[in-house]
Amino acid sequence: MRVAKLSWSPQAGLSSTGDEPQADLVLYFGARPVLAEGGCHQALREAFPGAVVVGCSTGGQSLGLEVEEDGAVGAALRFAGTRVRLATENAIERGASHACGRRLGAALAAPDLAGVLVLSDGLHVNGSALAAGITERLGPGVPVSGGLAGDGAAFAATLVGAGEAAPAERRVAAIGFYGPSVRFGHGSAGGWRRFGPERRITQADGPVLHELDGAPALDLYERYLGDEAQGLPGSALLFPLRIWNPARPGHELVRTVLGVDKAARSMTFAGDMPAGWRAQLMRGGVDGLVSGAAEAARAAAQRCEGAAGDGLALLVSCIGRRLLMGQRTAEEIEAVAAQFPPGQPILGFYSYGELSPLAASGHCELHNQTMTVTLLREAA
């Protein structure tokens, strides 16, 4: 497997660290205003005419150890013995996310399917239902990872480009990897600290949380955020919710806020908030988040033991982590890189939600406020 690093800007155009005109797959991530213009996607399609080209908008993107706000970065992958296939769904509505996942899973299903990478609209898709639909069709034996596109702290629009289609809203792209050679490592961890009492989700409708312990959900957040409540929903990114099913110990998820309805006193999260589950507020510190990133990378590396070459480490981290870490954001990427051999190609973006299998069950779930690492390699 060979990897060429890419960068693109409206001013400088496309540049590459290597010559890979025969690339099988090109992944790219960039700022929403830059991708909306369409030039980046078109330039990559022209430069790599035989490749599957897929990318999305972000809350910041990284190539190597550097995080940037503008332009776009990417990687061109040439496999030795692995095939890739692209499946897409367009004009998706939130309520149709589960059916969308099932259709994507059906389109990619095959006896030699080794793993799936998903890039999804981050505002109009229910990531929990999407992951459930894909896993329901493929089963837990096929690892599924990826993330939801971002738009910085603006939450205005998110874009996904796939194949011949330029970046647009309400699109989900799924890439299947086939054959006995490919190795698909994955790991996801947070590093946030719990605080405050445990509460019960008493009323919710999918991702819309109405009540905790019988009281309006927004009241709880406004009480804890104080003056920062004026910045909702953005300020809530620093205070995610840990949720879990009391009947399934170890099945914990983290949820982050996408929007608020002040009239209804409700909050919309990136994934489902099942009634009857428990919930607890969380907050973070830089050291804890950096440790979580290292943990995710170690898990991904362990699942790729025995593969040759550097491959590609794909990092999907939540925008809330970036907002909290500020100028120290690069530290979590450095912590990931430290778990791999020197020179490991690293590409990543800041998202509105991360997709990764749970370690205990293998089922893909939507995570928030985590660092998710997907390691693509091929066996010797």
From TrEMBL:
Entry-linked InterPro entries: FIST_C, FIST_domain_N
Occurrences of domain FIST C-domain (ranges): 217-358
Domain FIST intervals: 22-216
Short name of any one Pfam family annotated for the protein: FIST
Protein name: FIST C-terminal domain-containing protein
